[in-house]
Amino acid sequence: MYVILVYDMGERRVAKMLKLCRRYLNWIQNSVFEGELTQVKLQELIGEARAIMDEYEDSLIIFTNRDARWLNKQVIGVEKASLDTFL
Q1: What is the pTM of this model?
Q2: Domain that holds residue 46
């Protein structure tokens, strides 16, 4: 499935959440990630994120879709981390 993940963490937890998300998804903007994950990998990510988070102060928002081709993406301005691969 295609996943878009957005988080807002307290200062002490931002670096840990960034490292975690980079292990599973592609960084596209500050605190925003996207990519393909299986349901099992998504559940692993959520479990590890819950261990980092303070659920009374932080937020983690996850959008899922069955495939990236069903999602329209428009970037206006600078795309911080392009997912295109040049050969």
Answers
A1: 0.82
A2: 2-66
Residue 74 lies in a domain: no
Nearest CA-CA partner of 20 in 70, 60, 55? 60
Say which CATH number the domain at 26 has. 3.30.70.240
Distance CA 21, CA 33 (A): 7
- Residue ranges with strand state E in the chain: 2-8, 26-29, 32-36, 59-65
Q: How many domains does the chain have?
A: 1
Per residue in 12-31, pLDDT (tens digit) is: 999 999 999 999 999 998 99
Residue 73 tokens, joined: 């993406």
